[in-house]
């Protein structure tokens, strides 16, 4: 997930409230306005009298030559650097991204934000949105926060479901009430994740909890914003996760809490082309996978030949980041 700053200079209350509601990380405002921001919401301010002080906590450097790149590398060791490329040259930004520099690039439009976020398939560390239009700001924030992104899902064929004994499983309670057909992508491998349905289905024995995904065992991967993965067990309150529906449409959910408890587990094996993929879930009727039409399928009723949805990808992961290398996970 990109760091998102919004420039509000001159002061504009509508821009501030739009930035707060859209999930911006910080606001750059004129001197004397940091306290006005705090009256509207809790957020980091960048101002001479703010939480971050330009010139002290934050450098701004305009790239005019390769020498400037070296200056930026040195400066970002002390903190993020706002990097301006007046002619929107991509090469200097590519060089800085490749070196892992924490650079923040200004963007005046949605197109510029998309370019900054997609350079080298990784994007700049942060984006400084600079537009006087609240509607354009809202569009840019929605894009950068991951709304409208997709994680393509395809049907895979169940081969076997078997009990594997007791283990620690994770319930992810989010701050979002999910609808039927929505859940989280979870799997034993980062290259193959099953769509685990939320507990939004009524049951005669337990009330629906549409904010919850009984996701799987502690070791399993799940997809999070920024095309990354995390272990279920390392999630915590305030972390962001990817909520995905049966059409592959994604939105961002915030974790409210994690529940890790010892429960009987099932190993689910499916076939995706010539590959076998697996995940481990709790052995209970309220845990469901998802059919191609969005209907939930209880794991205790699954049988060989059933089709469920999964997200597949090539390559591997290193600390959650997608990389191009040969990795075998069994």
Structure keywords:
7-stranded parallel β-sheet; 40% strand; 2 domains; Endonuclease - Pi-scei, Chain A, domain 1; TIM Barrel; 17% helix; 330 residues; 6 helices; alpha/beta
CATH class descriptor of the largest domain: Mainly Beta
Q: How many distinct helices?
A: 6
Q: Can you name the CATH architecture of the largest domain?
A: Beta Complex
Question: Order of strands across the widest beta sheet?
Answer: 3-2-1-7-6-5-4
Mean pLDDT: 89
Helix content percent band: 10-25%
Strand content: 35-45%
Number of strands: 21
Which helices and strands appear, and what pairs or packs with what?
Blueprint: E1 3-7, H1 13-21, E2 26-28, H2 34-40, E3 44-46, E4 59-62, H3 66-76, E5 81-84, H4 90-98, E6 103-107, H5 110-118, E7 126-129, H6 134-144, E8 154-174, E9 182-189, E10 192-197, E11 212-217, E12 221-224, E13 228-231, E14 240-245, E15 250-272, E16 275-282, E17 288-290, E18 296-298, E19 307-312, E20 316-318, E21 321-323
Parallel strand pairs: 1-2, 1-7, 2-3, 4-5, 5-6, 6-7
Antiparallel strand pairs: 8-11, 8-15, 8-19, 9-10, 9-12, 9-14, 10-19, 12-13, 14-15, 15-16, 17-18, 20-21
């Amino acid at each position: 997930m990109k760091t998102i700053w919004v420039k509000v200079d001159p002061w504009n209350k509508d821009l501030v409230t739009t930035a707060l509601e859209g999930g911006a990380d910080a606001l750059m405002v004129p001197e004397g306005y940091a306290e006005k921001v705090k009256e509207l919401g809790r957020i980091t301010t960048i101002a001479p009298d703010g939480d971050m002080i330009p010139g002290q906590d934050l450098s701004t450097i305009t790239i005019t030559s390769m020498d400037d790149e070296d200056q930026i590398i040195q400066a970002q060791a002390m903190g993020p650097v706002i990097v301006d490329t007046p002619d929107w040259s991509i090469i200097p930004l590519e060089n800085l991204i490749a070196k892992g520099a924490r650079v923040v690039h200004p963007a005046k439009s949605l197109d510029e934000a998309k370019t900054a976020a997609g350079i080298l398939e990784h994007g700049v560390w942060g984006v400084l949105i600079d537009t006087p239009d609240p509607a354009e700001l809202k569009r840019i924030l929605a894009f950068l926060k991951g709304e409208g992104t997709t994680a393509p899902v395809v049907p895979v064929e169940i081969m076997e479901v078997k009990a594997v004994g007791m283990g620690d499983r994770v319930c992810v309670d989010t701050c979002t009430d999910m609808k039927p057909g929505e859940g989280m992508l979870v799997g034993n491998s980062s290259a193959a994740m099953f769509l685990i349905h939320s507990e939004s289905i009524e049951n005669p024995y337990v009330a629906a909890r549409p904010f919850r995904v009984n996701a799987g065992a502690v070791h399993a991967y799940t997809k999070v914003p920024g095309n990354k993965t995390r272990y279920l067990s390392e999630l915590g309150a305030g972390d962001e996760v990817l909520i995905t529906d049966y059409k592959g449409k994604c939105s961002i959910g915030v974790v409210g809490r994690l529940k890790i408890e010892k429960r009987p587990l099932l190993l689910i094996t499916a076939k995706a082309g010539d590959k076998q993929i697996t995940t481990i879930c709790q052995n209970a009727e309220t845990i469901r996978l998802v059919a191609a039409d969005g209907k939930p399928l209880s794991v205790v009723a699954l049988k060989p030949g059933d089709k469920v949805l999964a997200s597949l990808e090539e390559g591997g992961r290193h600390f959650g980041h997608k990389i191009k290398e040969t990795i075998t996970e069994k």
